[in-house]
Amino acid sequence: MKFTKTLLTTALFSLSVFSTTQIAYAETNNAELVEQAILSDGEQLKRVMEAFEREEFDTVISLAQPLAAQGNVMAQSVLGFAYASREEYFQAFKWYQKAAEQGYALAQSYLGFMYDNGRGVKQDLNLAKMWTGKACDNGNPKGCDTYRMLNEGK
């Protein structure tokens, strides 16, 4: 989870700088999705991330919910993480799925993890492989590692 938090922090703290080169999200090739999320809702995402850093997940949820409902992939992923941190896996799954379906590799990786472990959803190794494979295809190294392990039978 610490690795995940670092990735989200890195992406969201680029909010203060709005250029594509500085929004380069080293974890994925989803720079366009990240840039779009930041440019459309930068100030609100910054407040979300500040609450996230303080681990104030109730605040994160209340601030991110409106953005996530509008389709902001970063807000959806942060909501997923906040709910997972509270062990509300069904809600976490729901928000990761929304971001994953938009092509956000980080959320695709988490969705695969949730299918692999039966968190918030019935365990399904085929869907775990599918989502981690998509994450890998979209440049997420963790998704590639998980996809490889799933195909090797763990």
Short description:
The chain is mostly helical and 154 residues long.
Question: Which features characterize this protein?
Answer:
single chain, 154 residues, mainly alpha, Serine Threonine Protein Phosphatase 5, Tetratricopeptide repeat, 8 helices
How many separate domains make up the residues? 1
The whole-angstrom Rg is 14 Å
Count helical runs: 8
- Indicate the structural class: mainly alpha
Give average pLDDT, whole number: 81
This entry's quaternary arrangement is single chain
CATH class: Mainly Alpha
- What letter string, H or E per element, gives the SSE order? HHHHHHHH
**Shape verdict:** elongated
Q: What is the number of strand segments? A: 0
Annotated CATH topology: Serine Threonine Protein Phosphatase 5, Tetratricopeptide repeat
Structural description of this entry:
- This protein is mainly α.
- The chain has a single domain, classed as Alpha Horseshoe (Serine Threonine Protein Phosphatase 5, Tetratricopeptide repeat), CATH 1.25.40.10.
- The radius of gyration is 14 Å and the shape is elongated.
